[in-house]
Every structure is written in structure tokens, then in C-alpha cells.
Amino acid sequence: MKCPNCQTDLQAIDYEGLSIETCSQCNGEWLDSDELGKVVAIREVRFNSEEKRAIAESTTIKGVVLEDVDRDLKCPKCDGITDALNYGGDTGIIIDRCTVCHGLWLDDRELEKIQMLIEGWDDALPADLEKYGPKLRYVAAELDDADDVAVSRLPFIGKFINSIINGILDVVN
């Protein structure tokens, strides 16, 4: 396979237990469609705190107009064309995804940035859940109550009928 950036032969390397292709010239990396998910699922410890801070600062969330950064690279695996993709929707980490085989081309250090971003999200999750969990549960309960259907207003039988109807509706939805 050839690098879509500089046409250098890609070399297979072991990356955290996965075989991925990398370019020795531009340091880009090719991942098959399912490999990125496997890479980010592996909790990595090779970054020191200064590297983590530097990568986190370089991946601040920012808006990107994808048409301005879309390069239409030739897929090294199937010769399809890539589309630019803002990883996570709005992270500012732009990766190239093949429209045919869905493989991913990541430029130099983008894989590490994605790993650091995921780890940052994972690290912040417990504190966010503690801080926002009660409010989220309250809002969820409000929405659930708003979805309830009142079929009968009879004092005792009505509550029973309403709970059966709402239980059926919950199963259907």
C-alpha cells in the first residue's frame, strides 16, 4: 500500500497489539475501519503529564469547515476517495475516511491526539457524573412523567389502568 500523502510504501507496525500501516516519510497512519475503536479502547500509559497537557491543549474543541480541509485522498487499501471527518463531531481533529471501505488515514500524531482526547473524556466522566448526575436524573424523570398517558382518572382503578397502559407504551417505545 502507498501513503496517500507522499506515495511512500506503507509499513506494517505493531501499535498496542494491533497491526497498522504507517508511513516512514510523513508519519501518517492507515487504520482499517474497525481498528480505531480497538486502539482507543486500550488505556495507554506511555504519555507523561506534560505530554498529556500539550496534546490536550492542541485538541481544544473548535469549529472546522470540512469543505476547507477535505483533501480527497486516494485510499491506500481500495483506491476509493476519502472525505474529511471531524473526529467526535467537533474536536478539531480532522481525519480522512474512505467512502468505500471506511478505513481511516490519520496524519502525524492524530492517533495519539485521539487517544488523549478519549482518555481525557474517560478521566472527566466520574466527576461530571457526580456533578451533573442528579440534574440529569431529574430531567429524565420529568421527561418520563411528561410521556405518561392518563387514560382514567378514577381514584383507585384509574392508577392501575394508567400504569398498565404506560408500561405497555414503555415496552413498545
Strand-helix topology:
Elements: E1 11-15, E2 18-22, E3 29-31, H1 35-41, H2 49-58, H3 66-69, E4 82-86, E5 94-98, E6 104-106, H4 110-147, H5 157-172
Antiparallel strand pairs: 1-2, 2-3, 3-6, 4-5, 5-6
Helix pairs in contact: 2-4
Instruction: Identify the strand order in the major beta sheet.
Output: 1-2-3-6-5-4
Number of domains: 2
Beta-strand percent range: 15-25%
Report the uncertain regions.
none
Give the overall silhouette.
elongated
Order of helical and strand elements: EEEHHHEEEHH
Strands, total number: 6
Measured as a percent range, the helix fraction is 40-55%
Task: Give the structure's gist in a few sentences.
The protein is α+β, with helices and mostly antiparallel strands. The protein has helices at residues 35-41, 49-58, 66-69, 110-147, 157-172; strands spanning 11-15, 18-22, 29-31, 82-86, 94-98, 104-106.
Fold and architecture overview:
- This protein has helices at residues 35-41, 49-58, 66-69, 110-147, 157-172; strands at 11-15, 18-22, 29-31, 82-86, 94-98, 104-106.
- 43% of the residues lie in helices and 15% in strands.
- With 173 residues, it is α+β, with helices and mostly antiparallel strands.
- The two termini are 47 Å apart.
- A 6-stranded antiparallel beta sheet has the order 1-2-3-6-5-4.
- Helix 2 (49-58) packs across helix 4.
- It folds into 2 domains: 11-123, no CATH class; 124-172, no CATH class.
- Strand 1 and strand 2 (18-22) form a beta hairpin.
